[in-house]
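Long-time lurker, finally posting.

We've been working with Extradiol dioxygenase (Pseudarthrobacter psychrotolerans) and I want a structural starting point before designing mutants. I don't trust myself to interpret raw outputs, so I'm hoping someone here can both generate the structure tokens and explain anything notable. Sequence follows.
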Amino acid sequence: MSTNEQSNYLRNPKPRPITAPKLHHATFMTMDVDAMVHFYELVCGLQPVYYSSHAAWLTNDEANHRIALLRLPGTKPPVDKPHTAGLHHTAFEYATFDQWLDNYERLRDQGILPAVCLDHGMTMSMYYVDPDGNGIEIQVDNFGDWGLSKEWMWAAQEFSEDQVGPQFDPEKLVQARRDGLDGDQIHKSAYAGKYRPDNESPDMSFPDPWPARIAANPALADGVPFPPSADVAPGID
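Top reply, 14 upvotes:
Generated this for you. Predicted structure of Extradiol dioxygenase:
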């Protein structure tokens, strides 16, 4: 910075809060609270603190909620969900590689498979799709330390050239672990492209569940109905 250039703090004395807030929860509009509660409990271990047919608040830690679900009158299905602006996915992280891969096997055995799997370099990530078409990332930090993974993202030439990373087939990871490789060895091989899917798809967008849902139940296209006596949608605190 030249000696004549003003600092950001001179131009804007308070460019950020002195105490930064932490991300607490994400809220989704939905047309089927029960299906969403079932999915998030099964995939992420989130349980409802409060549950009703029109709303639910779920948590899997000490917070009062981490995911909120609202079924408000007038809510309509999205159009072309995978290709519209808005929230792409939320992410949940396991502490160890083995916990993360064990979770894949647990979900696989219940018929739930990821839509796409990527080794981003700082994380290995499996992306699932909830009943409304929202992406859910289940990840593990490849460094086991946020400070180290943050430094790698900032400094690594590999990440500056490719922020996505190679796809991998999780079954090949399962087999590699059975063969005696540890998480770090598997990550390095995955990042080198060793475990790519046999039929890798160039389109990494999430599948859209809504056309099939509406075809099976055309009334969904009309959205969540308003109560007969309600002039406006009920408020949600």
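Before you design anything, note these points.
The chain has two domains: 23-74, 88-220.
Helices lie at 8-11, 33-44, 97-109, 146-155, 157-161, 170-178, 183-191, 210-216.
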